[in-house]
Specification:
By secondary structure, the protein is α/β, with parallel strands linked by helices. The chain has twelve helices and nine strands.
Length: 319
Amino acid sequence: MYINDFSTYLKNRFGKKIYKISLDAGMTCPNRDGRLDTRGCIFCSEGGSGDFASSCKLSITEQISQGKNRVSKKIADDKGSGQYIAYFQAYTNTYAPTEKLRKIYMEAALNDDIVAISIATRPDCIDEEIMSLIYEIHMIKPIFIELGLQTSKESSYKYIRRGYDNFIFENAIKLIDKFNDKISTNDNHIHIIVHTIIGLPGETYEDMVNTVRYINKFPIHGIKLQLLHILKNTDLAIEYEKNPFKVLSLEEYTDILIKLLKNIRPDIVIHRMTGDGPKNILIAPEWSKNKRNVLNHINRQLSIQDVIQGAAYLQDKGE
């Protein structure tokens, strides 16, 4: 079995276990403020994927302190001092004037306990000026840029109201890669992480494989494979109530996940294999509430089936 997992990558790079602290920098999104739409993506909760973050009313330093307290027991169990990734998670974290972005990124970068910064954003919210700032901060602390692609299928990304076409994603990759050309080694690059969703209504297994094959073509460093969650107070929840659509079982999800892993380039780091929605607003799938059970089931099947990440990808290339 071989999976190029994020936890192992972090241990190899930083020499110890690293914890992620979710932050809310008080951003919004062009899909919410009227630039593109006011409704958000069809699946997006009121927290804008930042449901586990601290309050944006606190400073970045205060949020980091709160986050450290939340994981303090885990650190005690690991018998060591904590080091962390500052994860700007809620909404679109490059969607602000560069003066504001500089302030929040720098506040995180200068924190002694922060070893890296992760920025969740949209491909249509990155430009030359923002990338110049990110490159500057990256010279202080490593940066991961997380791009929400979700799917490469046109009918699907229009259905979820993503708000941009695939060529916008491709242009963002090219822009980030242009700045990475200034950096000598791949491991020191600004890492590009792509978000995908497994189980979008109407998507077939082949559609999901095609998204992975599409991503494989680009100089990305990581991928997040996210289970579709139906959350309260979203348009997806309203549709599910009116016209219930098929939701994957744990067994079906695991089967698709394994097939996708076999098609992902072996050098791409797997940052996530499922994801968990907040229990108080989760409608479906119910089985995803038991995160430990889900991960145990997935890991057991990976082991039983001796899954090799990239096996199908290499076979298709004749290697």
